[in-house]
Amino acid sequence: MRKLVVSEFLTADGVMESPFEWHGDYFDEDMARTVSDQMAASDALLLGRITYEGFAEAWPAMADQPGGAHMNGVAKYVVSTTLEKADWNNSTVIAEDFEGAVRRLKEQEGADITVMGSATLVQWLLAKGLVDEIELLIDPVVVGRGKRLFQDGLPAIPLTVVKSEMFGSGVHHVVYAPRKQG
Questions:
Q1: What are the pLDDT digits (tens) for 73-118?
Q2: Helical residues (DSSP H) of 79-164, grouped into ranges
């Protein structure tokens, strides 16, 4: 069974939106290693439409940048009721039976399935109990505005800390696993 891993850059106040505006000062060797390890453990991306469209616009032009080969080559699954086609290399639109489709992806042979960005999708996946790990890179900055990863309305989801480390840049790298309730 493959793991579904949510991987996000966040600010100290929980903002995930527009990391290009606040994240650059905190990207160091520790973070490069961590992101590289995340990519090496994953062979698929699960994305919401908005994140997919942003990535599909940016990454093809960054094929020679760090992470470019992975992002452009990996299988991509887009959960959307409005996207009619996905032209970025190795992309598939999931337009119906989202829960069943994600469960089938997790049952396939392969490496981790990574979710990046895609706040609405992440919240839905958490509410459905489909997330195996949440890997956060929390930058020591407060931006005071922007979309937050965890919005009002989510049910309570107890988490267990799987890993926690502090980088020299002040970034807190923490990995959580939702605790199974029952």
A1: 999 999 999 998 999 999 999 999 999 999 999 999 999 999 999 9
A2: 98-107, 119-127
pTM of the predicted model, to two decimals? Answer: 0.93
Q: 3-state class of 117 per DSSP?
A: coil
Which position has the token pair 């020679």?
Answer: 64
- Spell out the residues 6+ positions from residue 48 whose beta carbon is closer than 8 angstroms to its own: 78, 79, 80, 117, 118, 119, 120, 121
pLDDT in tens, 62-79: 999 989 999 999 999 999
Nearest one of 150, 108, 148, 146 to 125, comparing CA atoms: 150
Q: Which residue has the tokens 């100290």?
A: 12
